[in-house]
Amino acid sequence: MTKDKNKLDKEDLEVKDTVTPETADKVAEKEDKTEKKKSKKEQKADDIEELGQKLQEITDKYMRLSAEFDNYRKRTLKEKMELTKSAGEKILLNVLPVMDNFERALKSVDESTDIDGIKEGIHLIYTNFKDFMTQQGVKEIEANNLDFDTDVHEAITKIPAPSEDLKGKVVDCIEKGYFLNDKVIRFSKVVVGE
After folding, report:
1. CA Rg value for the chain
2. How much is the pLDDT for 175?
3. Are 143 and 170 in contact (CB under 8 A)?
4. What binding partners and quaternary form does the record give (predicted)?
């Protein structure tokens, strides 16, 4: 029996040591799965690292862009403030000669006895100033004997129309209105006939 038992153990060992093709395939599959799991873990780690780098780059670009925009906004605000401060300078420089002419006229009123000369001088100054205003884009709003228009006229009062054709029209202009480049800067104050 011991001989038989030894023989059987030897045969068992031989069977265990012999690998069949099916067993080899199973072992190879297990090894492939293990390698795939390892490679998937490594791939995920690589992907996470790559995404982290991309996030860092995007964050850096965003911060730089945000800083550039903030600098641009501050620069444009500063330029606008400077422009606002100095915008009136050109206009005021062009008004100064009119002011000088008024001072000369006042001086000549005190010294002169020629009323016609004073009238002519004042008319010249007015024409000079009106030309300057036209150059700046300011023009007068026509009102007298025109239909009342709430877009450009402000009715101060209504009176009975002196004639039938003046009903709903401007009878008198109390204060002239003005456009600045087709925008109303002051409405005409008018009396409307009814």
Report:
1. 49
2. 92
3. yes
4. Homodimer.
Q: Is there a domain that residue 39 lies in? A: no
Is the pLDDT confidence value at 154 over 70?
yes
Enter the tokens of residue 98. 């009119």
What count of residues does the chain have? 194
Task: Say whether both 128 and 144 belong to one domain.
Answer: no
Chain position carrying tokens 């300057």: 132
Residue-range definition of the domain harbouring residue 177: 138-194
| Residue 44 within a domain | no
- Tell me what percent of the chain is helix, strand and coil, each rounded to the nearest 5: 70, 15, 15
Identity at 73, one-letter amino acid code = R
Q: Which two tokens stand for residue 15?
A: 């069977």
pLDDT tens track for 86-107: 777 878 888 888 889 888 888 8
CB proximity list for 94: less than 8 A, separation 6 or greater: 132, 135, 136
